[in-house]
Amino acid sequence: MSSNSVAGLPLSSIPIFQTVASYREWRRRAYDEKKSVGFVATMGALHDGHASLVRRSLAENDLTVVSIFVNPAQFAPHEDLATYPRTLPHDLDVLSSLSHSVPGSSITRSPSALFLPTVNEMYPSGITQDKLAQKGTFVEVKGYGHQMEGSRRPDFFRGVATVVTKLFNAIEPSRTYFGQKDIQQALLLRRMVRDLLLSHPTLENLFIVPTKRDAKSSLALSSRNAYLTPSERELAAPTLYAALQAAKTCWESGSSKAEVIANAYNLVERKAQELSSLETRIDMRLDYLEMNDPETFEVVPGEETRSAWELEGHNRPVILSGAMWVGRTRLIDNVVLGDVARLGIIA
Ligand SMILES: Nc1ncnc2c1ncn2[C@@H]1O[C@H](COP(=O)(O)OP(=O)(O)OP(=O)(O)O)[C@@H](O)[C@H]1O
Ligand SMILES: CC(C)(CO)[C@@H](O)C(=O)[O-]
Ligand code: BAL
Known about the structure:
single chain, 347 residues, alpha/beta, Rossmann fold, Pantoate--beta-alanine Ligase, Chain: A,domain 2, 2 domains, 11 helices, 34% helix, 16% strand, globular, binds adenosine-5'-triphosphate, binds pantoate, binds beta-alanine, Pantoate_ligase_C, pantothenate biosynthesis, Pantoate_ligase, nucleotide-binding, ATP-binding
């Protein structure tokens, strides 16, 4: 049974499913009525980046399901599981405000269901963040989870692949939407869908949606931006995207990868020095900034240049991505160097 009233939450106009069994009854009716189901997986604290995925799903599917689940398995013991922003009343408001008018018809679509499972529902064998003590079934995309974000968060993608497999099994989406902001996640999930021969979604029905940014500062919208103080957000956080943009220009003007990355590090270092001398000191440092092959996630060699990359016959762009600490907040961002459409990212 779905419910429009969940303890501690305001009455919702969107049906909320807290169990897989109750959701499946609803899903069966959608099959009977031959309605397509779009799916957006989130950890909540919804912002306009999430909204852009939901809008895309509303435009392309009869029905749209959003999940909110803060997945313990993708947080390392020292990370921010306990403090991750949980803003359910706000999230319901955001979802209720979204709609799509189907062109040439009188139909207006809005989100059809919220899947809001408990930890027990998602992990029937239990879950602890201590990997060595974990029991039960986990999904690992071997060879693709240790580079880029995985180089800093070694068990992150195992946690993501596990929970997304469960979510796909529960929701059975016709189409699903992930954000470019977490580009390695989206590409790794594509590989997982292919390797596991999934039918819901199929490979061609997993879509990557461009990163939504703050109109003024170009800061990538992110739930963790809520951790930033106003001055961190204004003065420091936009530096990551500025460094990525500077690196992009440098790469396009013919510099080698090593030069491009060194320049970007210098840019951040200069800004960090400026901010550390302010009266209200702001600490900022790059965690990493690297250029990787979108197919293998391997690091692009230091001597590589744009023209060499193209001459070598790579029929794909490269990913320039990074993570930056601003105080105690870790931000990530990326740009694609080359034709984004080749990665199936279409605005
Ligand atoms: N700025 C954005 N533009 C487009 N999609 C986004 C953006 N931010 C997040 N998403 C996508 O929304 C989905 C859910 O992400 P999630 O709930 O973790 O939000 P988040 O803002 O990425 O959170 P966090 O701050 O923890 O990284 C993912 O597919 C993610 O890539
Ligand atoms: C895909 C996801 C919802 C899995 O927990 C999460 O990693 C996220 O929000 O990007
Ligand atoms: N959007 C990625 C979720 C995480 O960092 O855990």
